[in-house]
């Protein structure tokens, strides 16, 4: 059961769920926008709630609410993708999407995390350009577009979605841009049917709403783990605290078998999703994990913001205990509004 001091949050979420579930449609409208805005504002403030400890009825409400949020998000993206396609230069008008600034911040966060675990050559050199897969890209693939335009300017992006209409809308947005149309590709397929192709990608991104319950999410992660090339990176979106009423949670300790979890970042500002980065294990001929040098993570405290001195280093091994969560300011946000989880290995197998 949830704690007494968390009851106001639970009560408010349940009230909003009741109102949302009564809507005749989740397509963009005044009522839909108002209710989901209230829900997001209710869940954004940091809260120590552990959704796994909620009673069964509230767990069911949470599961249903995540699916309703996913459906509404799909309608919203589809609506604005169609609207943007009516512009002569769609990519120059992305700011009409109401959450575009959030995607800019989230993509900056993900790029900074990713760049800590890749070489500058991989990022900048067209001869060794990264090949990236984004699973669950949808009709408005803003993460791929922002990363390709602003950060990973030589990388190719292979966007996977099961919905052919979503892919056709997404492809229409980038078709007018000579650079992006040559580096962004769209595949209409169930990712569970993709096998050997996953070996080709240096980085695989998994969208937050691919697998909207624990079983679905873990099934996708294990499929990706089975077919990714050893040593390559998986980036996932998760949720923390009350934000877990909006998106599914990836538990780094239990859900990422086959991967070494490198970092988990929990934003506490208007960026909703937590970001998890993990590396697929390398195995020797006896199928034992190969110990690799951990890439340095440099940080520096300056006016309450960690920016860069001091080094955290060690070895990448299969941990026998999960890492501990610590609160800190992140180097990934100039306002320092992040909680950071870093690996703290107490034992080595």
Topology:
Blueprint: H1 7-21, H2 30-43, H3 56-85, H4 100-115, H5 120-124, E1 131-135, H6 142-151, E2 156-161, H7 164-174, H8 178-183, E3 184-188, E4 203-206, H9 214-227, E5 233-238, E6 259-267, E7 274-280, E8 292-293, E9 297-302, E10 305-312, E11 315-316, E12 325-326, E13 338-342
Parallel strand pairs: 1-2, 1-4, 2-3, 4-5
Antiparallel strand pairs: 5-7, 6-7, 6-13, 8-11, 9-10, 12-13
Helix pairs in contact: 1-2, 1-3, 3-7, 4-6
Explain how this protein is built.
- The chain is α/β, with parallel strands linked by helices and 349 residues long.
- It has 2 domains: 4-93; 99-342, Rossmann fold, CATH 3.40.50.
- It contains 9 helices and 13 strands.
- The strands form 3 sheets. Strands 3-2-1-4-5-7-6-13-12 form a 9-stranded mixed β-sheet.
- α1 (7-21) crosses α3 (56-85) and α4 packs across α6.
- Its EC number is 2.5.1.43.
- This is Nicotianamine synthase.
- GO terms for molecular function: nicotianamine synthase activity.
- Belongs to the nicotianamine synthase (NAS)-like family.
Order of helices and strands: HHHHHEHEHHEEHEEEEEEEEE
Rounded to an integer in angstroms, the radius of gyration calculated over CA atoms is: 20 Å
Helix content: 25-40%
| Basic shape | globular
Provide the residue-averaged pLDDT: 82
Strand fraction band? 15-25%
Strand order of the largest sheet: 3-2-1-4-5-7-6-13-12
The number of strands is: 13
Low-pLDDT runs: 1-5, 291-349
Helical run tally? 9
The CATH topology name of the largest domain reads Rossmann fold
Gap from first CA to last CA:
36 Å
Give the domain tally: 2
Please name the fourth-level CATH homologous superfamily of the largest domain.
Answer: Vaccinia Virus protein VP39
CATH class of the largest domain reads: Alpha Beta
Biggest sheet character: 9 strands, mixed
For the record, the CATH architecture of the largest domain stands as 3-Layer(aba) Sandwich
Structural class given helices, strands, pairing? alpha/beta
């Amino acid at each position: 059961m949830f704690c007494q001091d968390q009851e106001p949050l639970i009560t408010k979420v349940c009230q909003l769920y009741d109102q949302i579930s009564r809507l005749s449609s989740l397509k963009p409208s005044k009522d839909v926008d108002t209710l989901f805005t209230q829900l997001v504002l209710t869940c954004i403030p940091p809260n120590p709630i552990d959704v796994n400890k909620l009673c069964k009825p509230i767990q069911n409400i949470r599961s249903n609410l995540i699916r309703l949020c996913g459906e509404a998000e799909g309608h919203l993206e589809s609506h604005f993708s169609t609207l943007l396609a009516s512009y002569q230069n769609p990519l120059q008008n992305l700011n009409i999407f109401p959450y575009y600034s959030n995607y800019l911040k989230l993509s900056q966060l993900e790029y900074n995390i990713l760049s800590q675990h890749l070489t500058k050559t991989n990022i900048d050199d067209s001869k060794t350009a990264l090949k990236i897969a984004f699973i669950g890209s949808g009709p408005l693939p803003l993460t791929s577009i922002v990363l390709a335009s602003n950060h990973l300017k030589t990388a190719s992006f292979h966007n996977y979605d099961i919905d052919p209409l979503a892919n056709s809308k997404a492809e229409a947005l980038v078709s007018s841009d000579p650079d992006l149309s040559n580096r962004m590709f769209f595949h209409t397929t169930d990712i569970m049917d993709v096998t050997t192709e996953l070996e080709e990608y240096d980085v695989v991104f998994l969208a937050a709403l691919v697998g909207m319950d624990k079983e679905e999410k873990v099934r996708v992660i294990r499929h990706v783990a089975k077919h990714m090339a050893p040593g390559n990176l998986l980036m996932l979106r998760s949720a923390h605290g009350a934000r877990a009423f909006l998106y599914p949670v990836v538990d780094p300790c239990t859900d990422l078998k086959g991967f070494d979890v490198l970092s988990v970042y929990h934003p506490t500002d208007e960026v909703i999703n937590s970001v998890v980065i993990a590396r697929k294990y390398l195995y020797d001929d006896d199928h034992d994990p190969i110990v690799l040098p951990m890439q340095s993570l440099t940080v520096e405290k300056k006016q309450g913001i960690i920016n860069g001195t001091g080094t955290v280093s060690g070895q990448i091994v299969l941990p026998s205990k999960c890492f501990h969560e610590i609160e800190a300011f992140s180097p990934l946000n100039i306002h320092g509004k992040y909680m950071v989880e870093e690996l703290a290995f107490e034992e080595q197998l």
